[in-house]
Amino acid sequence: MKHWDIEDISTRDLFEKTLKIAKVGIYELSVASNTIYWSGVTREITEVPSDFVPTLENIKYFFKEGNCREQAIQALHRAKEHGEPFDLDVEMITAKGNQRYVRNIGYPEFRNGNSVKIIGILQDITERKRIKFDLTRKNQLLGFAEKMAHIGHWRIDPVSQKFTWSENMYRIADLKIGVPMTLEKYLKHIPGEDRKKILEHIDKCNETKIFEPFTHRIKHKDGSTHHFKVLGEIIVNEQGEIDQIIGTSQDITEFVHQKQELIKKNQQLNNAEKIAKIGHWRWCLDTDTAYWSDNLYEISGVDKNIKVDTEVFLNTIFHEDREAVKANMENAVATRNFEPIVYRIQLKDGTLKTINTVGQAITDSKGMVQEILGTCQDITEQTIKEQELIFKNQQLNLAEKMAKIGNWKWNALTNEVQWSDNLYDIYGHPKDADLSYEVYLNYVHEEDRPFVERKIGEAAERGVYEDLNYRIRLQDGSVKTIKSTGIVNVAHGQTIEMLGTCQDITDQFNKAQEVIQKNQQLTFAEELAKIGYWEWDVVNDHLTWSDNMYRIFDMEVGTPLGFENVVEAIHPDDRDMFRAHAEEFIAEKKFRKFMHRIVYDSGAVRTVELYGEVVTDRAGNVLKMVGITQDITEQRMSEIKFRGLLDSAPDTMIIVDTKGLIQLANKQAEKMFGYKATELVDQHVSMLVPNRLWDTMEYHANIFFKDPKHTGLPADLDFYVQNKAGFQIPIQVTLSPLVTSEGLLVSLAIRDITEQKQSAHRILETNKSLKESANKLKTQNKQLAEFNHITSHNLRSPVSNLSSLINIYKTEDDSDLREELIEKMESVTNHLTWTLDTLVESLVIKNKTNVALEETIFESILQKTEDMLAAQILKTEAIIEHDFSEVESAMYNKIYLESIFLNLISNSLKYRDENRKPKILVKSKIENGRTQLEFRDNGLGIDLKKNGHKLFGFSKVFHRNKDAKGVGLFLTKAQIDAMGGKIWAESEPGIGTSFFVNLNH
C-alpha cells in the first residue's frame, strides 16, 4: 500500500475491484536496485506462489520463447536506456504452464536524464484474444458458407454513395475483388429493364425507411445473365435519417423460380458497440436515494432531472420481472451480498431492454448495509445475438447433416484436433474416443494416405490448403469418398493451425463414375446402332454433336457447325424439306420424326432418321432442339424390298406393332380402305374397325399376344372393317407374328368376303322370311283365340244382364220400377258399347298393316304429355325427369308413341303412393341394337307373382281406384305389338314400377 496515497477507502476499494474485474495488474521496476514490485492481480495473472520474488532474470521466462520473449526484452531495454514507452500484446506461459495472452504497457520515469523506474500494467487479454480468434474462425466459416450458398454481404453509405462489399459479393457479381464500387458503376452491369426497378426501390427506401426484399438480374463478363435476390435493412439515426443500408445478395440463378429466405439481418458490428453500454449506480439505504451515472439515465430512458428512489427504479422494471428484482434487493440487504441479476426494463415507448446488473453491499462497522454500489450493462443486443447464434448453430448443424458436411480444426502446435458432431458421424468415430492427427490419418484409405500426408505437409509449408478428394475406410470396412477444403493460419512464418470442412461426396462420386461408365456404354451403343446425339441452340444457331454423329455425316470430329453447315451435307432434293421441317417445328413447338438423305464427299448416299423434342422457356419461346439421328440406310433398303413383296400380295396386308399402330400398308390396303398408305402409318388399327367390334378386336388381340403364332379369326366370327367412306366390309383375317430387331410386329392378311356373305345372306333371308310367316300365323292364331276369349267373357255377362232386365221390364206393372229398370238397361248398354268400341279399336290396331312412320323426338313427346297431364302433375306435385342423352329420337308412329307416353305416365300418377310425392323417370338407351324406353316410378307397385300373367289383359285393375278401367295397358300393348315391339314390367309393392318398351325401330 506504500505506493498509493488514497484517503477515501471506498474509492480505493472500488478502484482495486475494478482492476481485478478488468484483470489488470500493476508492476514497478526500480532501475537503480533492479527490484520489481508486482500487484496481487499481476501475481494472479502469472499464477506465481505468494512467496515468489520477481527479478529481471526470472520474469523473462514468463514470456513465450521466441519472438514474444525477444520483443518483451527489447522493449524493456529501450525503456531503460532511451526512455521509450511500450505497449505490447504478447503470449505468456504462467508458472503453472498455462498459456495466456497479456497486454504489457510500460512508462519509464526519468530524472536528470537517467531512467529511475518503469511503471506499467499487465492486463490479461486471453479471453479477448479467444473471442477475436473465434470471430476470425466464424468469419472464415462464414466465407465458406458464402461461397457454398453464393451469398455476398454489402453496406451502402447514403451520403457518399459508397458501396462496401464482401469478397464473395465481388465473386458472385463477377467483378474484380476490391475495386471501389458505387451505384452508378453497379448499374452498368444491370440489364436496362432492371435498372429502373433498382432506382425505384432506392427511392421507395428513402421515402419509407423500409427495405423490401426484391430480385434483379446482373450480367457477367461472359455475357450470361444471373439472378440476384436482395435482402436489406435500413438503419436510421436518432433524427430519423438514414445512417446506412446493410444487406445480402444471393445468386439464385439455379433456383430463380423458387422463393427462399436468403439470410438473417446481421448487425454484428453495431451490436458489439451497443454491448459496451454501461452505467454505474449507488443506492443509499438511509435516504432511499439512488445516484445514477449519465449513461444509466440514457440506458433506462429516465429524465436526468428526476430524483431516483426505489419506487422510480422499480417502475422502470418490466412488470413480469419486478418482483424478482425487488426480492434480489431485499436479499442483498439481508445477506450483505448482492447476487448478479439479469432482468428487463421497459421504456416509456414500450421498448424492452435486457439489463445485466452486478453490485456490492457496503456495510458499516456494525455490519449493517449502508449502501450498495453496482454496474448495469445493457445486454439487449447480446441476448438477441445469443438467441440468434443458437438458432444459426442449429441451422448450421442441420445444413451440415443435409449436405453431409462437417467442419474441423487442427492445431499444428499441440496436435489437437477438433471435429463438429456431423464430422464424427461421417467418419463413424465415437465422440468420446481420443482424436488426433494420427487418428485422422488412420481413417484415410491406405492407397490415398501418402497423397493426403504429402498435401497436408505442402499446405503447412506453403500456407495454402488445396482442396482434396480422397477415400476413407470406416471401422466397419465400408469406404467413403471425402472432399476437404480449408485454410491455413500462419503466424511469424509458422503454421499455427488449419481449419476447414469435409464433405461426404460418396454418392456424387459413385454417380460420376456411373455416368462415365454409362457414357462409355452409350458410345459403344451409338456405334453399334449407328446413332448420334445432337443439340441445336436455335437462338445462337450453334450445333453440338456427339462423336458418332460426326461419323454418320462423314465429318471430322469437333468441326464447328451451324444449321446451314448441316443443310450443305443433305441431299439436294431433301434440303427444302429439311428447312420446312425446322420452321414447322419452331412454329408448332413440337418435333415429329422424319427421314432425309445425306451425301458424302465420295458421292455415297445414306438415309438417316431423326427423333427429337423442342425445348422452350417459360414464356413459350423456343430455345433449342435436342435429339438423335440414326443411319437407317440398310433398314431402308430392306424396307423397300419388303414393301415390294407386300405390294405384290393379292390380299390386303397391314403390319402393326404391339400397340396396334399401323407400320406398313400395301397397295391392296389402299384400294380396300380408300386411304393412302401414308395416311394409315402411325394410326391405330381400330380406325379401320367399327366401334361395335372394338371389344371383339381387343379380345382376339389379347389371345394372339399370349401365344403369337400363325392363326386366323374363328370361321364363325362375323367380323367387319370400314373404309374411309364409312362403308363396312365383311372380312376374313389371318394373323402372323414378325420378330424384328425393334420388337414384335404382326402381319394382318385381310380378305374381302362380301360375295360369300351376300350369298349366305340371301339364304338366311329366305329362311328368315319363312320363319317370320310361320311366326305371324302363330301370332294371329293366338290373338284370334285371345279375342274370342275376351269377347265371350266380356260380352256374355252384360248381354245376359240386359236380357234379364228386359224380361223383368215386360212383366212389371209398377211404373216407378219400370223407370228404374230402364236406367239400369241404359247403364248396361253404355258399358256394352264401351267394351265393343275398345275391342274394335284393338282389332284396328292389330290389323293395320300400313302404319305411318316419322322421326319422333322423345323430349317433344314428353313435353306434350306433361301439357296434357298438367292439372294432375300440379295437383300431385309430381316430379318428372328424363334422360334421352343416349338416344334422342326414333322412327315410329307418332300417334302410337304419344299414346304410350300418355298411358304409362298417367298410370304412374293414378297409382301413386299417397305417402310421398310421385317421382317419374323416362330414359332411353340402346339395348342389343334396339331402342329401348324405360318408364320408372315410385308408386304403389304391382305384385307380379300374383298378377303378372294378367298385367296387360283387358279391363284388368290391381288397385282400388275409382278411375281405373284396365284398358290403358291393354291398348298400349296392342300398339307396341303392332309395331313389332315388346313391353314388360319390373315391380315391387311399396317401392314402385318400371315399364320397359322395345320400339323395334
TrEMBL record:
<dbReference type="InterPro" id="IPR005467">
    <property type="entry name" value="His_kinase_dom"/>
</dbReference>
<feature type="domain" description="Histidine kinase">
    <location>
        <begin position="790"/>
        <end position="1001"/>
    </location>
</feature>
<dbReference type="InterPro" id="IPR036890">
    <property type="entry name" value="HATPase_C_sf"/>
</dbReference>
<dbReference type="InterPro" id="IPR036097">
    <property type="entry name" value="HisK_dim/P_sf"/>
</dbReference>
<dbReference type="InterPro" id="IPR001610">
    <property type="entry name" value="PAC"/>
</dbReference>
<feature type="domain" description="PAC">
    <location>
        <begin position="592"/>
        <end position="644"/>
    </location>
</feature>
<dbReference type="InterPro" id="IPR013655">
    <property type="entry name" value="PAS_fold_3"/>
</dbReference>
<feature type="domain" description="PAC">
    <location>
        <begin position="212"/>
        <end position="264"/>
    </location>
</feature>
<dbReference type="InterPro" id="IPR052162">
    <property type="entry name" value="Sensor_kinase/Photoreceptor"/>
</dbReference>
<feature type="domain" description="PAS">
    <location>
        <begin position="638"/>
        <end position="691"/>
    </location>
</feature>
<feature type="domain" description="PAC">
    <location>
        <begin position="336"/>
        <end position="391"/>
    </location>
</feature>
<feature type="domain" description="PAC">
    <location>
        <begin position="86"/>
        <end position="137"/>
    </location>
</feature>
<keyword id="KW-0808">Transferase</keyword>
<dbReference type="InterPro" id="IPR000014">
    <property type="entry name" value="PAS"/>
</dbReference>
<dbReference type="Pfam" id="PF02518">
    <property type="entry name" value="HATPase_c"/>
</dbReference>
<dbReference type="InterPro" id="IPR035965">
    <property type="entry name" value="PAS-like_dom_sf"/>
</dbReference>
<dbReference type="GO" id="GO:0000155">
    <property type="term" value="F:phosphorelay sensor kinase activity"/>
</dbReference>
<keyword id="KW-0597">Phosphoprotein</keyword>
<dbReference type="InterPro" id="IPR000700">
    <property type="entry name" value="PAS-assoc_C"/>
</dbReference>
<protein>
    <recommendedName>
        <fullName>histidine kinase</fullName>
        <ecNumber>2.7.13.3</ecNumber>
    </recommendedName>
</protein>
<dbReference type="Pfam" id="PF13426">
    <property type="entry name" value="PAS_9"/>
</dbReference>
<keyword id="KW-0418">Kinase</keyword>
<dbReference type="InterPro" id="IPR004358">
    <property type="entry name" value="Sig_transdc_His_kin-like_C"/>
</dbReference>
<feature type="domain" description="PAC">
    <location>
        <begin position="715"/>
        <end position="765"/>
    </location>
</feature>
<dbReference type="InterPro" id="IPR003594">
    <property type="entry name" value="HATPase_dom"/>
</dbReference>
<dbReference type="Pfam" id="PF08447">
    <property type="entry name" value="PAS_3"/>
</dbReference>
